[in-house]
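Dear support,

I submitted the protein below through the web form. The confirmation email said the job was done, but the results page showed an empty box. After a refresh the structure appeared. I'm attaching both so you can tell me whether what I see now is the final result or a partial one.
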Amino acid sequence: MAGFNTAVTGLKAASTDLDVIGNNIANSSTVGFKTSRTEFGDIYATAVVGAGSSNVAGSGVTVTDIAQDFQAGTIEFTNNNLDLAINGSGFFQLDDGQGGVSYSRAGSFQLDKDGFVVSKSGKFLQGYDLDSEGNRLPIGDLQVSEKESPPKATEEIDLSFNINSAEDAETLLADYDKDEPGSFTYSTTVRTFDSLGNEHTVKFNFAEARPFQAQQEVTGVTAGESVSATTISVAHIAELTGYSVGDVIDASSGSSFFAELTDATNGDPRIESITMDDVTDPVGFTIRFYSEFPEPDLAAVSSGIAITEVAEIAANETHTFALDATTAFGGVDSLAEDTLIEIGGVQVQLTAGMTQDQVGASITAIEANILDANPDVESVIYDSASNEFVVTYEAESGDVNPGISFDGNVASAATNPLWTAAEPTIKQGDNTFQGVYRMYAYLNGTELLDIGKALDPGEVGTGTEPGPILLQFNSSNGLLSGINGESFSASAVVPSITISGADPADSTTTIELDITDTTQFASESIVKASTQDGYTKGDLIGVSFGETGEMVASFSNGQNQDLGVVAIATFENQAGLQPAGDTEWIATLTSGDAIVNPPGTGLNGTLRSAALEQSNVDLSAELVALIEAQRNFQANSKTIETQNTITQAILQI
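What the results page shows now:
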């Protein structure tokens, strides 16, 4: 009877279903496991030729497929960076080293003794190696090949800071000393490394230019004689002007000798003026320097010439009026007649009988009015002893010639004009110190570094030397506007500063210092940002993975290095993959060949480090299915029992 065979197929199908469900339940905690389900098909036997009744009893059931469900399981995080999970579609590609390739969603990896990333079954995780430029190489075994990070010398420093513009430069000591904080405005230190990985520091000192001018006297030069090693051998003077043996030095303040020294194009940019002190032999002359060069280094190379530094002078411009008061005081100590004088547009009435001291007091009484009417003026003083009227201008105003006026001939009750003043004697001003800082750099706080200071005019050779450079700030907005003589606008790229000699292990190393965003605001002097790209030697401390598959080695010196990129495989028909055990699959003709790309590209899922994909088995659903399969088995058993009863009944007829 066909009923027995039909029941047997039912028992076999139910038994297979029980096996599949039991396997799902057994692997409910297996990392990367994918649940399966049993799919059935009915069996009908029909005649090949001829057609009978369409009412044909079936011949049972058959298992048509055990299909796998590749739905992603829950991702759970771990404390191991080598645990990997794919968040999305794709498989890890594994190689057994013998040419066998399999695919898995189980990301429990570890390092073997040679640094290769392997699965728990010892198969090699596949990925892209990287060349020195970071370009991907052909797929191969991923390996942690770098066990240490070599040292790197500092080559770039990014430093930005604010220097408090409210600091008073006049309070700084006249002579700069790197070890005397009172001689500079602000200081900051940056850590650096040499080519062997030794740590050093570069200390930067910033000294604001004071509103004073250096002045030096040169003596021992014989006027009217030819230039020679014995008559003039001050290097920065003789060489800079282009004078040669046979040229004659004129004993005159207006000579071409002095004109060339102060020439804007070919002269010494540090020199503001040169004046002759004496027209007799030997000639002496005075050199005055701009305020931004407070310590000019001049050296006489001939024993016949001497250079002495005169005490610094204030950078203010002054106008001194020598007054003719012979008529006014009539040979006695009191003013002969009433008179009206005008100073800078402000009038003061002087009355007969005033002494010179009383006249001075009257002028002092209107000083505030004169200052209000003339913002560039700092003070107005009448010196009764010398009978001179002195106007001092703000140092920030620089040169203000012709400046304030003095008029002793204003109409008054007097019958004759009194107190005439000769043309004023003018000492030129200097505002080059405004917003100017001398910047020094020291290796380990002691050795003065070369940061681009040009050789002083007249020095032999070309290039730069250790010493300070100038930083210039816009006094109206506090923004950096010039470095080492190179000016730029607020929107322009700030030129970098090249530091030489900061690597004791390699003298060829230079450091590019970028001080973009440095300011001079009226707020506390602070470092706003400071970074440098050097580091010491480091040892491997761990490996991690990025979302797009980068395998990154971390070292004890704080550096990270990309060692490779994990490869992710996808298939046109992943349902066609054949299970191979150890939660792995192999490709078949049905699945098609693997399509390999980095994570996060195309339809590939991204990578999660320190995470594992759990089994996608729904245990509750499997237990319900188990009950259903059990009943199916029992029902088919009942079919056999019924068929047996029927057979017994027939035999008893």
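Response: this is the final, complete result; the empty box was a page-load delay. The CA atoms of residues 74 and 521 lie 56 Å apart.
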